[in-house]
UniProtKB/TrEMBL annotation:
Region ranges (Disordered): 362-388
Membrane topology (UniProt): Multi-pass membrane protein
Domain (FAD-binding FR-type): residue spans on this chain: 272-435
Name of the featured protein: FAD-binding FR-type domain-containing protein
InterPro entries, per database record: Cyt_b245_heavy_chain, FAD-bd_8, FAD-bd_FR_type, Fe3_Rdtase_TM_dom, Fe_red_NAD-bd_6, FNR_nucleotide-bd, RBOH/FRE
Biased composition (Polar residues): 369-388
Species lineage: Eukaryota, Fungi, Fungi incertae sedis, Mucoromycota, Mucoromycotina
The keyword Membrane is assigned to this record: yes
Length: 593
């Protein structure tokens, strides 16, 4: 044992007690939060039960003034470009709690208390920091029980994962800096300060892992070189964890909950992505557009899908050894559409006619995917008389914008040979914490390819409202979309048309208003958007968020409005701030991995 671990298990020391006392306190806080959220979900259930029984329910009122202030988003230079006042308060409170446990835990009621000396407080920093790492582990676990109990999606928890990690790294930095300074004073040179004995060597290894995690987590690397970020992150976690356990194997008592849940999540995701087969149905990449559209079939996807969710996709587009490597690269993409079939009694498919129908009909033979031109984009054409027993076919589509190296290469490959593209799908993920169906007015405002979550929410509300679901309160939907070129809209127009047609014959009254802004096109869109008729307002200018939201606010001055937004950071921040100022509920979707 002495050869494997540098120090014995010191559970009775003050610095270890400070660590697990902080851990128990934080888990208690989150348990209370989850209980409160479950009570809220119970109230939502009772509210919908009243609607099902034919009783009237008052519309949700706008948020009070104090809540509006806390929901405002601000920019912190060099740190983040979008954070709410509430999140800042959370972080400040978290820092205060960390300092209290570092300097005062374990708490006693007898005798005078003296602040711990540096030789003790730096180790307290290390153990409290490990607890923050454990919480960060659980925050980033995609199938986390905390995510389900708190009703927060994976992408909503990722910012907290980053903050807990940063605080933990800062605390580990205090411990590391003090120990290096102490060793240098003792040995007089840098080499011995870092590698004198096994305890110092393992600490240096863990430090190297922390440095890798920090450097490779910057936004530029995450967004442009996601594969490098992902693998360096995994390597950094393994290196720092192994080094920390060898340095002090008692650390496992603190790291165990996070590591266990992460490993369980990895096993579940491996089964979901490798043993629940995914079939690539069609691949579309039009040179006029900047994104690739992939239609795929995954059995069981529709059973757990919630509008606005996304999947992690491994895209194999090469040959040979590199193709095997691509199977390990997972990238997040929002599902833009789930396609459904009508009930077996009707025996009628609801996919529009086009080349994809031929592929769908031949799926039993497991044929290879087909390239599809943009003029044959398939979508759901729902019928207002669909039976409630309708079963989903498991077809879904994603739209991938060419930003980084992988997505640009995918676009080129899809143009040349779409049959070469194959998918593995893991998910869906993201439990939407905003229940859009409980609001009489819904605003879906997005920019560019950020329209994909809005599309699924739009289609879900229209389908349920058209079937007469009493629990869906939505009466008005404002669909606002800002794009540069009119060609970017071609692949989505058929979805918008299907929703408009379904809303026109809806059992429950539903008004869907489309507003599309073309910032770099002078085309009036008469051909592409002609099927949307009077429900569309087309603008040949850039969308000014303040004007758009103010106009909508003038139409809805009493009830609370639900807002979904996705797009550039500045765009979303402005939407969120205006929505919060009006006392509305807002959800922004962005991948900050």
């Amino acid at each position: 044992m002495a050869l494997l671990f540098a120090t014995p298990f010191r559970a009775t020391t003050e610095f270890f007690q400070a660590g697990y006392a902080y851990g128990l306190f934080m888990w208690g806080i989150y348990l209370l939060y989850c209980i409160g959220e479950q009570v809220h979900r119970g109230m939502v259930y009772l509210r919908r039960r009243r609607l099902t029984n034919g009783k009237d329910v008052a519309p949700l009122k706008v948020l009070p003034g104090w809540q509006r202030v806390f929901k405002r988003k601000v920019v912190i230079p060099f740190i983040t470009d979008c954070i709410s006042i509430m999140e800042i308060c959370h972080i400040v409170a978290l820092l205060a709690i960390n300092l209290i446990f570092i300097f005062f835990a374990p708490f006693t009621l007898s005798g005078d208390y003296m602040l711990p000396v540096a030789d003790v407080s730096n180790r307290r920093c290390a153990y409290v920091g490990l607890v923050n790492f454990t919480i960060a582990f659980i925050m980033v676990t995609r199938n986390s029980i905390f995510s389900k109990l708190s009703s927060h999606s994976f992408d909503e928890l990722v910012p907290y994962h980053r903050w807990y990690t940063r605080i933990g790294l800062a605390e580990q930095g205090v411990h590391i800096g003090y120990q290096i300074w102490k060793a240098y004073n003792r040995y007089g040179n840098v080499k011995d300060s870092l590698f004198y004995n096994f305890e110092i060597q393992t600490g240096t290894i863990a430090t190297l892992g922390y440095i890798i995690l920090y450097i490779t987590s910057f936004e530029t690397i995450r967004r442009r070189y996601f594969e490098f970020f992902y693998y360096s992150h995994v390597f950094g976690i393994l290196l720092s964890t192994a080094g920390a356990l060898a340095h002090e194997y008692g650390d496992m008592a603190i790291l165990a909950p996070g590591v266990f849940l992460w490993l369980a999540d990895r096993c579940f995701r491996y089964y979901n992505s490798h043993y629940q087969k995914t079939v690539t149905v069609a691949v579309e990449a039009n040179e006029k557009q900047t994104f690739t559209r992939i239609l795929f079939k995954k059995e069981g996807l529709e059973k757990s899908f919630i509008p606005g969710q996304y999947v992690f996709v491994a895209i194999r587009q090469s040959k040979g050894f590199h193709r095997m490597f691509e199977s390990l690269n997972w990238h997040p993409f929002t599902i833009s559409e789930i396609m459904t079939e009508s009930s077996q009694q009707q025996q009628e498919k609801n996919l529009e006619t086009g080349k994809v129908n031929e592929v769908v009909d031949g799926l039993q033979d497991e044929k290879s995917p087909t390239n599809v031109s943009s003029s044959h984009t398939p979508t759901l054409s729902s019928q207002n008389d669909s039976d409630d027993t309708a079963v989903s076919s498991g077809f879904a589509s994603i739209h991938i914008k060419g930003i980084g190296n992988m997505t640009k290469r995918l676009f080129s490959t899809s143009q040349a040979n779409g049959e070469q593209v194959q998918l593995k799908v893991d998910g869906p993920f993201g439990a939407n914490s905003l229940y859009f169906q409980d609001y009489e007015t819904v605003v879906l405002i997005s920019a560019g390819v950020g329209v994909t979550p809005s599309l699924t929410i739009l289609k879900d509300l229209v389908e349920k409202r058209s079937k007469g679901y009493a629990t869906v309160r939505t009466k008005t939907i404002h669909f606002v979309w800002s794009i540069r070129e009119i060609e970017h809209a071609e692949a989505f127009v058929s979805i918008l048309k299907a929703c408009r047609d379904l809303a026109a014959v809806s059992i429950q009254p539903l008004d869907v208003k489309f507003e599309i802004y073309l910032s770099a096109s002078h085309d009036n869109g008469s051909e592409i958007f002609k099927d949307l008729g009077n429900s569309l307002t087309l603008h040949n200018k850039r969308a000014i968020v303040n004007e758009v939201m103010t106009d909508i606010a003038m139409q809805h001055t009493v009830e609370r409005v639900a807002v979904q937004t996705c797009g550039p950071a500045d765009f979303m921040r402005e939407v969120e701030n205006i929505s919060s100022a009006n006392g509305w509920s807002v959800r922004a979707e962005t991948f900050q991995f």
